[in-house]
Amino acid sequence: MLAIEFIIVLLAIYLGARLGGIGIGFAGGLGVLALAAIGVKPGSIPFDVISIIMAVIAAISAMQVAGGLDYLVQQTEKLLRRNPRYITILAPIVTYFLTLFAGTGNISLATLPVITEVAKEQGIKPCRPLSTAVVAAQIGITASPISAAVVYMASVVEPMGVSYLHLLLILIPSTLVAIILMSFIVSWLFDDKLANDPVFQKRLAEGVVEQNRREKTVIKPAAKLSVFLFLLGVLSVVAFAIINSKGVGLVSEPIMTTTNAILIIMLSVATLITLLCKVETDVILNSSTFKAGMSACICILGVAWLGDTFVQANMDWIKLTAGDLIAGHPWLLAVIFFFCSALLYSQAATAKALMPMALALGVTPLTAIASFSAVSGLFILPTYPTLVAAVQMDDTGTTRIGKLVFNHPFFIPGTIGVTLSVCFGFLLGSLVL
């Protein structure tokens, strides 16, 4: 039965990849139906994860319509054009901090055209900075104070004596240093000269490579205010989590969970931006960020539900086969997280599905926290929205998916970034905890 269930999961994911976009969420639901048909009890739906993403996306979408996202992209473009030769190193740092700020990697979508354009102007293969930037955004989710993944992780480790503040003190430095080193390694090891790429030369001869610059966007008057309001919301979430943390001990009985606080604060931020920046709510529904975010929610709903159904149905087998192995080799937990995240399609959903299993196996807080960054293996399968967008935006053809599916430019940088994040997590965690 285990083999049959696993085949159903793989077929559902394959079908979703063929459908593309939101279709992977649809196929996940079909996979749950197929598992239920052979007697498998459906698993838990990560409603708290989905609700956090919805609230954060609502605030970001309001900020986008107010011009805040254009303002952030403008500042990004200024930074990259000031140091164009180092775009492979700077681009991932930018997308990392944007993700840290926003709590979702979807915000990096707006920077991808700028990264592509600057790379082309410098004669650098766009696949180099695009791959490191996309991967950095995915890893950044596991360090963002307002991401659903980090909020869930905080709720898991606090009963083990690790405060929200200590969690961030481990995750932020370890992931930041990892993506910087990853970027240097990619710059050193791989040829980045665009002129050396045969696919680019062919597309250039065919006249399909765009050479003109994008038109400059006019920044709206309320753009800076919308960014300030969103930043204020992020700081409010962090302040709430720290004040109400059991490790800090300022509040003995919080009136709400951090999840509820994020929902309240982010929806309030969206309201303030809408009122003070005079944003029309109908326009928010049609914004690219809102559409991408809601699509991500459907994808997580289907795929995470499918993954949780399979994991929960086979939890006893997993404990039996993996318990002693992980106890003797703690780093293997990161390997499990890494490959399962590709199937579960979400850092938060992966953590929620597998972290209870890890705790049941008796892993230490250090192992759990250090391995947490490994839930960022969403780049393994070339189906994630930011990855697909990067491929579509690179008209030079250097950012392409190979015939073997796994041989794409995101795999090696991503694997390096995740591996370094885990290693630094163990190192820094041993000093902080």
Automatic annotation (TrEMBL):
<dbReference type="GO" id="GO:0005886">
    <property type="term" value="C:plasma membrane"/>
</dbReference>
<dbReference type="Pfam" id="PF03605">
    <property type="entry name" value="DcuA_DcuB"/>
</dbReference>
<keyword id="KW-1133">Transmembrane helix</keyword>
<feature type="transmembrane region" description="Helical">
    <location>
        <begin position="357"/>
        <end position="381"/>
    </location>
</feature>
<keyword id="KW-0813">Transport</keyword>
<feature type="transmembrane region" description="Helical">
    <location>
        <begin position="6"/>
        <end position="38"/>
    </location>
</feature>
<feature type="transmembrane region" description="Helical">
    <location>
        <begin position="326"/>
        <end position="345"/>
    </location>
</feature>
<feature type="transmembrane region" description="Helical">
    <location>
        <begin position="289"/>
        <end position="306"/>
    </location>
</feature>
<keyword id="KW-1003">Cell membrane</keyword>
<feature type="transmembrane region" description="Helical">
    <location>
        <begin position="222"/>
        <end position="243"/>
    </location>
</feature>
<keyword id="KW-0812">Transmembrane</keyword>
<comment type="similarity">
    <text>Belongs to the DcuA/DcuB transporter (TC 2.A.13.1) family.</text>
</comment>
<feature type="transmembrane region" description="Helical">
    <location>
        <begin position="164"/>
        <end position="190"/>
    </location>
</feature>
<feature type="transmembrane region" description="Helical">
    <location>
        <begin position="130"/>
        <end position="152"/>
    </location>
</feature>
<dbReference type="InterPro" id="IPR004668">
    <property type="entry name" value="Anaer_Dcu_memb_transpt"/>
</dbReference>
<feature type="transmembrane region" description="Helical">
    <location>
        <begin position="255"/>
        <end position="277"/>
    </location>
</feature>
<keyword id="KW-0997">Cell inner membrane</keyword>
<protein>
    <recommendedName>
        <fullName>C4-dicarboxylate transporter</fullName>
    </recommendedName>
</protein>
<keyword id="KW-0472">Membrane</keyword>
<feature type="transmembrane region" description="Helical">
    <location>
        <begin position="86"/>
        <end position="109"/>
    </location>
</feature>
<dbReference type="GO" id="GO:0015556">
    <property type="term" value="F:C4-dicarboxylate transmembrane transporter activity"/>
</dbReference>
<feature type="transmembrane region" description="Helical">
    <location>
        <begin position="45"/>
        <end position="66"/>
    </location>
</feature>
<feature type="transmembrane region" description="Helical">
    <location>
        <begin position="410"/>
        <end position="432"/>
    </location>
</feature>
<comment type="function">
    <text>Responsible for the transport of C4-dicarboxylates.</text>
</comment>
